[in-house]
Amino acid sequence: MSEQLLAMMIGSKVQADTGEYMNNSLATVRKADAIVAALETQIVNGMRGPGARLDERALAKEFCVSRTPVREAFRQLASIGLVEDLGRRGVLVSKHCASDLLDAFLVVAELEGVAARLAAQRISNEELKEAQEANELCRKAVLTLDVGAFNSANMIFHNAVIKGAKNRLLHDQLATARPVIFPFRHHISTLPGYMEKSLEEHSDILSALSVGDAKKVQNIMFNHVNLQGEQVVSLLRLLEKFE
User: Fold this and answer.
1) C-alpha angle with apex 188: 230 to 52, nearest 5 degrees?
2) N or C: the chain end with fewer CB closer than 10 Å?
3) How far apart are CA 143 and CA 103, in angstroms?
4) Which domains does the chain have, with CATH numbers?
5) How far apart are the first and last CA of the chain?
6) Helices H, strands E: what count in the chain?
7) What are 172-203's pLDDT values in tens digits?
């Protein structure tokens, strides 16, 4: 067999192995994302209380997967503070401190306010259109009372504004801070009238962005993201389930 033919055969094998590895990795990530979504809901709703041990083998059986996606799900949940990975001692549901969580909302609100201010001067027509289209999806979700669809469209809306700020450092800081509040923000979306109010605030944000009013849009975005009134009460009541 010639060296050239042998090299071609080895190259083809490596390419095939690489493709299979990438497909398997992608499948693992998708399975892990599904497990994360399920466990987030269970933890936030109190079905798995603070200090509860998450058994890797039992969860793999429950979700009909191998242990690899479960481990990846644990990693993701630990990164947003919902669980604690104690190594050989296992993975436990975290105990949530109300003051820390309220501070997290405050920090994210400040950062997204800055992002909106920068976006008022830097956002492209395409990014603004993306935010407008996302808000239309939010509107449709409100009409059908679809909280899941609303949360998905809401994420697209905020991502478009953050992208429009064109500030890599700010983007990276928000990528670290926002996931901490996501599960609890999703809970708040179920409050009566919240989605409708959020939709109106989105429209105000879009109007301010369209005319480049940086100060106004920063103020609107801050108040939009930060918890207020009944939202704080609801969050505190939710956290009482963890005590």
Assistant:
1) 115
2) N
3) 32
4) 3-93 (1.10.10.10), 98-240 (1.20.120.530)
5) 71
6) 10, 3
7) 999 888 888 877 887 788 888 999 999 999 99
Greatest Cα pair distance in the chain: 77
Both tokens assigned to 59: 């969860």
Amino acid (1-letter code) at residue 168: R
DSSP state of 48: S
Q: In the structure encoding, which two tokens stand for residue 183, read together? A: 């599960």
Q: What is the pLDDT of residues 37-96, one digit of tens each?
A: 888 878 766 678 778 899 999 999 999 999 999 999 999 888 877 888 888 888 998 877
The pTM of the full predicted model, rounded to 2 decimals, is: 0.72
Exposed, middle or buried: residue 243 (CB in 10 Å: 0-12, 13-18, 19+)? exposed
Residue type (1 letter), 101: L
